[in-house]
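In this supplementary section we document a worked example of the pipeline. Step one takes a protein sequence of length 276 as its only input; no multiple sequence alignment statistics are reported here. Step two produces a three-dimensional model, which step three serialises into structure tokens for compact storage. The input and output of this example are shown verbatim.
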Amino acid sequence: MTIKKPHTVYLPLPGKQWLGRAGVALMVTFALTLLMMSKANNPAAQRLRTNITDMAAPVLAVASSPMDALYNAGMWLTDMSQLREQNVFLKNQNIELLQWQSAAKEMEAENRSLRSLLNVVPPKKNSYITARIVSDLGGPYVHSALVGGGSAQGIKKDEAVTNENGLIGRVIDVGAASARVLLLSDINSRVPVVTEHSQEKSILAGNNSEWPTLSYLAVGSKVVVGERVVTSGDGGIFPPGIPVGVVTAVEAGEVRVQPFADAAKAEYVSIIDYAF
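The serialised model returned by step three reads:
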């Protein structure tokens, strides 16, 4: 049995496909012609190439516009997303601040109501007079200093004397233009104080040394070394809260305090006009 070899049948191309292939071939031929003419430095080819470039530039600009628009749209979306996040954050922060403001106003109203209910007398503001230490004259007091200011400047007896570090002493004598200050270290000095941590009230008593002691401490006192000591305000002579010193030793029932202010190095002091 003989098998016949099939014949290849070539069908004619449709008109549109033939035109498409012919157009591609024509464009390729035209491009090659321009390339050869430009290689030969043909002026006509250069002019033709320039004209084609001029005509193509607007087309390329229009073609690139959608890409630019897409890029700008992407940047706009990114900015909008960031702005939205910032807006949400600021809104939450504003809500939190409004809550704090509401709580503060509520506490202020409650405080005002309680003060009115308890008939609390608001504390008076202290006034200060600054004076210079002019000399240390000694006399009947072992540890005292003279300041250049007196009754003419408004200084009065028993007012507290401080510098930038803390309490130095109190006024014991007042003249028209001078006043004598009894220092914390003097044996006659007595200052009502309280320890900040253990809240133990006592009297800081001078002993003519650099370390006055705490007297009249309660039984079983819990005062410890390193604890700060401030004025308690008891007795109405010293304003409460003035820094006095720090506990340096607790031994054999004796509590020593190192004053914050060094009177020997003080040049200017403040005299506190305290109204109890």
